[in-house]
Design a protein that fits this description.
Distance between the termini: 56 Å
CATH superfamily of the largest domain: P-loop containing nucleotide triphosphate hydrolases
Oligomer: single chain
CATH architecture of the largest domain: 3-Layer(aba) Sandwich
Number of helices: 6
CATH class of the largest domain: Alpha Beta
Number of domains: 3
Shape: globular
Order of helices and strands: EEEEEEEEHEHEHEHEEHH
Bound molecules: guanosine-5'-triphosphate, magnesium ion, zinc ion
Length: 301
């Protein structure tokens, strides 16, 4: 009998085995040796990859081929910073989830994710969750900054349901990944949107104000025929793959009109005299919050 081959999509990876969804079924797949690693990658297969499999048993298969990726969300591999760790492939939207109050809103992380999205060819969107806890003035200001930059922004409460219909509608037509700090409510949001999921969630620690890493692996869930959403473990800092200090200002769209106005062509916009970017910050034409994030990220690179 001829071998049965199917096209599918990787929904989850655990060690050397990968769950692949193909023609309405899940197959637990091994990886054929011929599927090559790129030398600087930690794994040749990521969640979201389009793959060709051979069906081996009723629910088992083998990955024969990984199709070319349309987009990637990557970060430097832990412990081997020169290697690329692909978190997910072929997604359209990176949904940056943050919360207010618990954990508190950290706009610096939003910027890191916005940059990672642009590097990887993904459209970013921002979710501000836990609205039921009440916005303070600085939260409201941060929200205004990102709205004015034109990003898709959803204000939600997974607790009382605010904003969830709109967010669900957005997810249905996209291939998205939810990412952000632990404890912001990524899995709780998905449990509300897909009530059969029953994803594990954990309370934010009272003593540290941080999440407790309830989700331990990346997994993909279908919302419609073509729309899926990926839940991911909370991350502390997002390392930026393939970003040089000198290029950081390219990722700050509001700085673009000023870049030619600096006295030095290779101005870092941090300490040089006659810096048009810093003048724009002082005048309030560039938000102080964004500039602060810029300097923090610049100094970390
Ligand atoms: N008040 C309030 N609490 C929420 C809301 N959404 C989630 N939570 C709570 O926040 C805590 C953390 O939620 P999780 O869904 O586990 O957070 P997560 O982002 O998936 O965290 P990791 O999996 O660790 O990355 C849980 O106790 C949730 O009940 C919300 O909108 N309002
Ligand atoms: Mg989670
Ligand atoms: Zn400058």
């Amino acid at each position: 009998m001829a071998e049965k081959k199917l096209d599918g999509i990787v929904t989850r990876g655990h060690g050397n085995r990968f769950m692949v969804f193909a023609e309405g079924r899940y197959y637990d797949c091994q990886l054929r040796k011929k599927v090559k690693f790129k030398t600087d990658q930690t794994t040749p297969v990521a969640v979201g990859d389009d793959v060709r499999i051979t069906v081996i048993g009723e629910d088992e298969g083998a990955i024969e081929e990984v199709r070319e990726r349309r987009s990637v969300l990557s970060r430097p591999a832990v412990g081997r910073e020169t290697n690329e760790h692909v978190l997910a492939a072929n997604i359209d939207s990176l949904v940056i989830v943050v919360s207010i109050q618990s954990p508190i809103l950290k706009p610096g992380l939003i910027d890191r994710f916005l940059i990672a999205a642009e590097i990887g060819g993904l459209t970013p969107a921002i979710v501000i969750n836990k609205l039921d806890l009440g916005l303070d003035k600085s939260d409201a200001e941060a929200i205004e900054v990102y709205q004015s930059l034109g990003y898709d922004l959803f204000l939600t409460s997974a607790l009382n349901g605010d904003g969830l219909d709109e967010f669900r509608e957005f997810l249905e037509n996209h291939r998205s990944i939810l990412s952000g700090h632990s404890g912001v409510g990524k899995s709780t949001l998905l449990n509300r949107i897909l009530p059969d999921l029953n994803l594990r969630t954990l309370d934010v620690s009272h003593s540290t104000g941080r999440g407790q890493h309830a989700t331990s692996h990346i997994e993909l869930f279908y919302l419609s025929k073509d729309g899926f959403v990926i839940d991911s473990p909370g991350i502390k800092v997002l390392g930026l793959w393939q970003l040089e200090k000198e290029n950081l200002s390219e990722y700050y769209q509001e700085m673009h009109p000023y870049l030619d106005g600096c006295r030095f062509t290779r101005c870092s916009h941090i300490h040089e005299p006659d810096c048009a970017v810093r003048e724009a910050v002082e005048k309030g034409d560039i938000s102080a919050l964004r500039y602060q994030n810029y300097t923090q990220i610049y100094n970390s690179l």
